[in-house]
Amino acid sequence: MIYELRIYRCHPGKKKVFLENFKKARRFMKKYGVTFEDAWINPDRKDEFVWMRSFSTIGARDKAIEAYYNSPEWLAIVGRIRPLIRRREVRLLKRSR
Questions:
Q1: Could you write out the DSSP letters of every residue in 38-71?
Q2: Residue 1 in contact with residue 97, Cβ under 8 Å?
């Protein structure tokens, strides 16, 4: 299993709008092979949003990301989501056991 930890820093005052749009983006993740695991708010950083998604293999990740980011659903909302993000950090993780 491959996990993807995603840490976003929103532009000041934009996190609420980002979260509203993120909920829309979550609705069709599974359809394209993206498994949403969970999301967190950092109480020490009001602009930060952290979430995790997973894939069975790296190959499955590549296929799912290609399908998701080229889907008509994503293309319809990406222009409302990406401008709200000031900084994005992505880490690929695999269990250590």
A1: EEEE-TT-TTEEEEEEEESSHHHHHHHHHHHHTS
A2: no
Look at residue 20 and tell me whether its pLDDT is greater than 90: yes
Q: What is the mean pLDDT of residues 83-92?
A: 97
Number of helices and strands in the chain (H, E): 3, 4
Which one-letter amino acid corresponds to residue 16?
Answer: K
Pairing relationship of beta strands 35-41 and 2-10 according to DSSP bridges: unpaired
Half-sphere exposure of 85 (CA within 13 A, CB side): 16
| Rounded CA separation 89/85 (Å) | 11
Residue 14 has pLDDT above 90, yes or no: yes
Is residue 87 pLDDT above 90, yes or no?
Answer: yes
Distance CA 85, CA 10 (A): 4
